[in-house]
Design goal:
Layout lengths: L10 E4 L6 E4 L6 H12 L3 E5 L5 H10 L3 E5 L3 H8 L10 H9 L3 E3 L10 E4 L14 H13 L5 E4 L7 H11 L10 E4 L18 E5 L2 H11 L6 E4 L2 H32 L3 H8 L23 H11 L5 H27 L8 E5 L14 H11 L3 E5 L24 H5 L3 E4 L8 H7 L3 E3 L14 E3 L1
Parallel strand pairs: 3-4, 3-6, 4-5, 6-7, 7-8, 9-10, 11-12, 11-13, 13-14, 14-15
Antiparallel strand pairs: 1-2, 8-9
Helix pairs in contact: 1-7, 5-6, 8-10, 8-11, 10-11, 11-12
C-alpha cells in the first residue's frame, strides 16, 4: 500500500454569492493519520468492537487473529458475563476459538470507560425496523454516542451496520462532532458493510471482500489499510453513500429473486408442475441465470429488513422502489401459504388444524445456524398456536428459544426426534433444513410430512404422507 497521504481533501462550503458549493482545504495536521497508519502496520492499534453479536464477535475474532489487541463492548451484561466465562453465545464462534481470543488479549466489557484509549472503533449494532416498518437507528445512535464520549483525537470510526444511504454522514458524523472533535481534522470516519454468511464454512470473514467508503480520502485510506490486515480483498469506493447503497442492493437482489421463485412455486403448484425440477432445469444454463430456492419465508436480520431500508430511502426521495416493496410483500406472505398447504394436507387425513399436534422442524432462520431473528419458523409457530394447534419444535441448533422469543405461548425447548414423539404428531412441518437431521428417520416414523425445503428425496414424493409446501 502507498504511503499515507497528508494533503487534505477539499471540503465543500456554500458560496455566499452563488449559493453553489465551492471547496477549501482544511488545515489538517497529518500527525494523527501518520501515527494511526503506523500503529495499524505494526499491530499496536487498539481496536474496539461495539456490539458483540453475530457480526461483532466474528469481527473481533478476525481482528484478534490478525494480531490486534481487541476490546469488545456490549451493553448486554448477560452476554458479557457469558463471554467472561469463555462461553460463546453464537455457534459461528466456538468456545475454543473464544479461549484463543482471550489468550491473544481479547476482552469483553459493558463498561464504556474501557474503550477510552481506542485507536479504531467499529460499530456493529443492529439496525431493525420500527413498528411502522421504518428504519430504527437508535442502536446506531446510542453506540455512536458511547464512542463519541470516550474516544480521543486520531481515532478511526467505522460503521458496519447495514443502513440507508447517508447514515454515516448525516447521523454518525454530527454525533461525533458534537463532542468537539471534527471528522477530517481530529477524527476519521468510514463505512464498511458487513458481509457475513453464517453457516457457510467456505465464506469466512478473512476471505470475503470488504467495501470501504470514507468521509474523506484520509478516512478511506486508513480504513482500507486496517481492513487489508483482516481480509484478502478490500475495495475502496468514492463515498460512504456508495458503500451503504451497495449493501442494500446486495440484499435487495436476494430478496427480489427469492420472491420470484416463491411466487413461481405457488404458480407451479397450481399448474401441477414441480418447481424444484423447473429450477434445476433452468440452472443448467451456463449464463444469464442464477439459482435461488423457494422456502417458507425470509429470515435473519438482513434479507427481510435491509430492502425495506432501501424502500424507505426511495420514498424519502419520492421515487418508490416498487419492485423491492412487492418482493417484500410476496416473501412475507409465504408463511400463510405454508399453513394453507398444511391445513389442506391435514384435512385429507380427516384432521382439523385446531387441536392438531404439529412438530415444527427447525426454528432457526437458515440451515446450520442458531439465529432465530425474523425466523419464518417462529412466524408459522405463532400463527399455528393462534389457530388452536398444539405446537412443538425440534432444532439441533436451538435447544432453547431465546428469552425474547418466549411469547404467544411458544414452547420454550426443543423436543428430541424419537419414534414415539414423531408418531404422536399429526404432522411434521419441515421449515429449516439443518444438515444434521436424519430425514429418513422422520420419513419412517411420521404420519404426515409437509416439506417446505425439498429435503425429502423426490422419489418419496408420491407417498401420500409427504406434501411439498
Amino acid at each position: 500500500m502507498s504511503d499515507f497521504r497528508i494533503q487534505p481533501d477539499p471540503i465543500p462550503v456554500e458560496s455566499h454569492s452563488t449559493g453553489m458549493p465551492m471547496f477549501i482545504a482544511p488545515p489538517l495536521d497529518p500527525h494523527f493519520g501518520r501515527l494511526l497508519a503506523q500503529r495499524i502496520q505494526d499491530r499496536t492499534a487498539r481496536v474496539a468492537i461495539i456490539g458483540l453479536g453475530y457480526v461483532g464477535l466474528p469481527l473481533a475474532q478476525t481482528a484478534s487473529a490478525a494480531g490486534f489487541r481487541v476490546c469488545g463492548y456490549d451493553s448486554d451484561t448477560q452476554r458479557i458475563a457469558t463471554l467472561d466465562e469463555l462461553r460463546s453465545p453464537i455457534t459461528t464462534i466456538s468456545h475454543h476459538t473464544l479461549a484463543e481470543m482471550a489468550r491473544s488479549g481479547f476482552t469483553a466489557t459493558s463498561d464504556p470507560h474501557s474503550i477510552a484509549d481506542t485507536d479504531i472503533a467499529i460499530l456493529c449494532v443492529p439496525t431493525p425496523l420500527t413498528a411502522y416498518g421504518e428504519p430504527d437507528l437508535q442502536p446506531v445512535i446510542q453506540a455512536t454516542r458511547t464512542v463519541a464520549r470516550k474516544i480521543r483525537p486520531g481515532c478511526l470510526i467505522v460503521l458496519e451496520s447495514t443502513t440507508y444511504p447517508s447514515t454515516t454522514r448525516t447521523v454518525v458524523q454530527p454525533i461525533l462532532e458534537a463532542e468537539g472533535l471534527r471528522v477530517g481534522y481530529e477524527l476519521f470516519l468510514a463505512y464498511s458493510p458487513e458481509r457475513l454468511d453464517p453457516g457457510h464454512p467456505d465464506h469466512t470473514p478473512d476471505q470475503i471482500p470488504k467495501l470501504v467508503g470514507g468521509l474523506d480520502s484520509h478516512s478511506r485510506d486508513l480504513a482500507v489499510r486496517f481492513y487489508s490486515t483482516l481480509t484478502t480483498s478490500v475495495i475502496p469506493v468514492s463515498s460512504p453513500e456508495v458503500a451503504e447503497t451497495a449493501k442494500l442492493l446486495e440484499n435487495a437482489y436476494r430478496a427480489v429473486n427469492i420472491a420470484l421463485v416463491n411466487e413461481l412455486k405457488i404458480v407451479c403448484d397450481a399448474l401441477g408442475i414441480d418447481v424444484w425440477e423447473v429450477i434445476e432445469a433452468a440452472a443448467t444454463k451456463p449464463f444469464g441465470f442464477q439459482s435461488f430456492s423457494p422456502g417458507p419465508g425470509l429470515g435473519g436480520h438482513c434479507v427481510p429488513i435491509d430492502p425495506l431500508y432501501l424502500a424507505w430511502s426511495a420514498r424519502q426521495a419520492d421515487r418508490p422502489a416498487r419492485l423491492v416493496e412487492l418482493a417484500a410483500t410476496i416473501n412475507a406472505s409465504m408463511p400463510d401459504y405454508v399453513i394453507g398447504k398444511l391445513q389442506t394436507a391435514l384435512a385429507h387425513q380427516g384432521v382439523e388444524l385446531a387441536g392438531a399436534a404439529i412438530l415444527i422442524l427447525g426454528v432457526a432462520y437458515k440451515r446450520n445456524v442458531d439465529d432465530t431473528r425474523e425466523s419464518p419458523g417462529l412466524i408459522i409457530m405463532d400463527q399455528l398456536i393462534a389457530r388452536g394447534a398444539r405446537v412443538s419444535f425440534h432444532d439441533p441448533f436451538v435447544p432453547v428459544l431465546p428469552t425474547i422469543d418466549h411469547t404467544r405461548k411458544r414452547p420454550p425447548s426443543s423436543v428430541p426426534l424419537t419414534a414415539p414423539i414423531l408418531q404422536d404428531q399429526h404432522a411434521v412441518l419441515i421449515v429449516t433444513d439443518h444438515s444434521s437431521v436424519d430425514y429418513r428417520f422422520i420419513l419412517d416414523h411420521a404420519r404426515l410430512i409437509v416439506d417446505t425445503r425439498n429435503v425429502i428425496p423426490l422419489r418419496h414424493h408420491s407417498e401420500n404422507r409427504l406434501v411439498r409446501a
